[in-house]
Amino acid sequence: MAETEEAFPAEDSLPPQQVDEGLTPLQAVMEWAAEGNPPGQRVAYILSIPAAAAESSLDEARNVLLPLLTQLAFDDHPDVKQATAEVLGPLGPILAGKDPELGEAGGSADAMDLLVLAHRLLQDAERGVQEAAASSVAMFAGLLTAGHRRDHLSAVVDALMHNYDDEQMQECAVDLLTKVVAAAGAANPGWCEECALPRMLRLAMHRDYSIRVHAVAGLVQLAGCVPEEERTGALLSSFADLCADQVWSVRQDCAGELAALAARLPRQAVRDRLLPLWQALAGDVSAWVQAAARRQAGPLLASIHPDDCTQELLDAFVEAAAGPATLTEACAHFLPSVLHSLGMQRWPQLRRASRHAAPRILFTPLAGAAERRLACRAVEAVSALAASGYISVRVALAESMHHLAAMVGQEAVEADLLPVIQALSADEHQAVSDALAVNIRSLLATLPPPARLGQLGFLARMHPETGSSCGQWRMRLLIAEQLAGIAALLEQQGLAEVLLPATLRLCEDPVAAVREAAAQQLGAMVGGLLAQAHGGGDGAGGGEQAAAGGQGEAPEASPAGQLAAQEQQQQQQQQQQQQQQEQQAGGSPPASAEKVEKQGGEGTAAAAAAQAPADQGAAAGGPAPAGATEQLPQDGTEEAAAAPKQAEQQQPEQQEEPAAAWAGPSNPAAVVQQIVRHMVELQRSGGHRARQTYLAFVSALLLPQAPPPPPDAATPAGAAGAAAASGTEAAAAQGDAAHAAHPAPGWPQLGEGVASNGIVQGLLEGAVALAADPVPNVRLAVARLLAALRVQQPRLAAVSPKVAEALASLAADADRDVQAAAAAAPAGELNPP
After folding, report:
1. Which residue intervals are annotated with compositional bias (Low complexity) in the record (predicted)?
2. What residue numbers bound the domain in which 385 lies?
3. Exposed (0-12), middle (13-18) or buried (19+): which is 280, by Cβ within 10 Å?
């Protein structure tokens, strides 16, 4: 114990270490990576050698770093040697990039120096040092000249192979060959054929079984680099010998590499030689070998030609659905790939292979249709997986269910897959339903319209629990990013009863990313509903297309979605015709666009209520934004002038409005009213995060496409400097110059009916009123919105003179970020995403 205390003194007794901050990275490495410093500190600075080399000249790296690495390669501490081996790999491309003679020489001379250092580390007694050195050699092996690879790299491998008394060195030789072939073999097929393949074949016949195990992966990697004659000849024969090895672990490793080897062999070799090897391994005397071979049934079916699959291979794949956990999980994971590869015409062969399906399977066969029988037999395997007692299997199936539903077709989904989907969505473990909800938009697009609403039950339980700050916020973010696509697939009643309440709750989520995503999707919903109310003939898109405009990836127009949209449009037309007939019979004028404009005026008034006098803002419990002392102008109608009082009277009732009240009329404008009222409450909120959520909602509504980041960092900086030096005039000049240099892209424009709608105008005025908000982040969001609006929607920005006034005031803001966003963002936003 005394010797231990002397060898490892207490940290308090060590002298304090002081780091000179004036040292360059190269100088710091030279001082603190040298011998005599604590090992942990030395390792940290050794790992920073590639960064120091990137900032240094080629001469400094050669004259300083390479001698230092030579000393470190002979260090006594294993951690120091392993760190040295790890930095050799990334250092090779860095030095080669600085070498002007690289192209003329056909390779890097520095890579040869690194190979000499790596050879020393490959012969180290520590296995970790050897593995790190082998990985590094693979990284710079492609930089060696052809002669250096043929002579020196092969000599390094031979030196390791000829250590007959040290099996660890021979394992290192196999590892080195495998990694080099995987990294640089495709670009150097000649070296693989002449040097790597003969050595790997000799190692595959080694007397030690552990070396033969390592040689299996090396043969598979070489199969993708050598000519076809060698692949189907000596290489495949050597692999077949390993499949019949006396040691079960060698055969098990061969079974696990069958699918990878099949992807590198020609079709005839797979059919005539590889599939019989699989069949022999699947019937092996070792249970471990059998399990490894049966796990490869799915990958093999996904990679081979459909006409070459055998009945035994299909049987093994389907029987895995009721097998142990490892087999069922593999079956669930590869089931979509198998369906995609084999096609519908091959699934009738599964009729005899479904005997292990669970008794709870729903099976409704239709005689005479091969495709129908295929779908039903596939569903039997799916049902067996859904009834599995392993959570991981059900999770894997739920993650791929949207792919399966898209492949089998709507008829098979409605008849057979729908019960499985419902069982997964109602699973007792939340992880299963969460896995199903991750791709809920794609899944709903494949379901019949009446069955879509029932799959949204998870929305009620995805919010954070009481007392939890964030909960599973990443899951909520994934759902929030799909809301607009989900809304496009639902009918008005489902949208009002289920989706909107959950969406509005997400707009008040404790995590900022979730709030922003939900607000953006909600803005896309409102844009789609307004376009639908105005006929859906203009703007960013009507109906489903407009609702999906806020997503990064628009939902595909599936036949089920198109049918639902047509049915919904026909129902709305019939309702409008009935209303016109009733009104004409009663002597009243027909309901037309005037009704929509009237509702738009009410929405405008609701937005104007957010900029009520300052005393009303204080009574609401939040700071009154600048400009709150004035009532914003509306449409000029009497209804708009009287609407603020009506909105104020309705707000107390709306705060306690039950979820069932969302199920109003099927008119899209009625749903928009409910959304706008909630957004106005956020705009009036005393919390700046709620106001930022409101701005995110307005941005998504007014800008159908999210503006891209500025591509040129110099442009915003130059405009910001001009704004600080000369005020708004210089900033405007900078923006005009940028407009002249970069032509405006074809931004999707809001339709005339949507842009002139009172709701849109009122929400824009509400955003403009936040230009004098006391919180800089809120003003920054306003500046970005208005600057992008002036570029992407110039007609809408020109309607309100307060847009230009707000931008001018923001360009002179005390916050530099706000200045840059107001003055320079239009120039940056001119390039399309």
Report:
1. 553-584, 604-628, 639-666, 714-744
2. 296-438
3. middle
- Is residue 107 over pLDDT 90? no
Report d(CA 94, CA 58) in Å as an integer: 9
Q: In sequence order, which residues have a C-beta less than 8 Å from that of residue 469 and are 6 or more positions away?
A: 510
Q: Where are the alpha helices (DSSP H) in 727-800?
A: 728-741, 752-755, 758-769, 776-792, 794-799
Tokens of residue 371, six digits: 């495709």
Is residue 592 included in any domain, yes or no?
A: no
Percent of the chain exceeding pLDDT 70 equals 70
SS3 356: coil
Q: Distance between alpha carbon 390 and the CA centroid of its chain, in Å?
A: 27
Q: How far is CA 153 from CA 138, 449, 778, in A?
A: 11, 64, 61
pLDDT at 628: 33
Please check whether residue 329 lies inside any domain of the structure.
Answer: yes
Assess if residue 791 is contained within a domain. Answer: yes
CB atoms < 10 A from the CB of 38, how many? 12
- DSSP state letter for 714: H
Tally of domains in the chain: 3
Q: Tell which residue, 728, 683, 684, 702, has the closest CA to residue 822.
A: 728
Task: Using the 3D structure, point to which of 438, 463, 494 is the last residue of a domain.
Answer: 438
pLDDT for 7 beyond 70: no
Neighbours of 166 (CB within 10 A): 13
* Per-residue pLDDT at 167: 87
Lookup: tokens for 108: 């890097």
Q: CB atoms < 10 A from the CB of 383, how many?
A: 25
The verdict on 459 and 498 lying in the same domain is yes
Q: Count of alpha carbons within 13 Å of 4, Cβ hemisphere only?
A: 1
Query: 33, 46 in Cβ contact below 8 A?
Result: yes
Type of residue numbered 524: A
Residue 237 counted as domain residue: no
Q: How far is CA 115 from CA 119, 137, 148, 464, in A?
A: 6, 7, 10, 55
Please choose, from the candidates 828, 813, 815, 808, the residue with its C-alpha nearest in 3D space to the C-alpha of residue 732: 808
Query: First vs last Cα of the chain: how many Å apart?
Result: 67
HSE of 691, CA atoms in CB hemisphere, 13 A? 28
User: Which residue has 């399977």 as its token pair?
Assistant: 361
Residue 311, token pair as written in the block = 């009945």
| Between 621 and 377, residue with greater pLDDT | 377
Torsion sign, CA atoms 389, 392, 393, 396: positive
Mean pLDDT is lowest, of 170-184, 289-303, 485-499, for 485-499
Nearest to 379 by CA among 399, 406, 357: 357
Strand, coil or helix: what is 37? Answer: strand
- Model confidence at 232: pLDDT above 80: yes
The position carrying tokens 């005039």 is: 729
| pLDDT (tens digit per residue) in 11-45 | 455 555 555 667 888 888 998 888 888 999 999 99
| CB of 341 closer than 8 Å to CB of 303 | yes
> Are residues 310 and 412 both part of a single domain?
yes
- Residue 216, number of CB atoms within 10 A of its CB: 25
| Cα–Cα distance, 138 to 85 (Å, whole number) | 12
d(CA 139, CA 163): 25
From the number of C-beta atoms within 10 Å of its C-beta (0-12, 13-18, 19+), residue 590 rates as: middle
Pick from 192, 245, 188, 248: nearest CA to 220 = 192
Same domain, 821 and 724: yes
Residues 6+ positions from 471 with CB-CB distance below 8 Å: 463, 464, 465
Give residue 281's pLDDT. 95
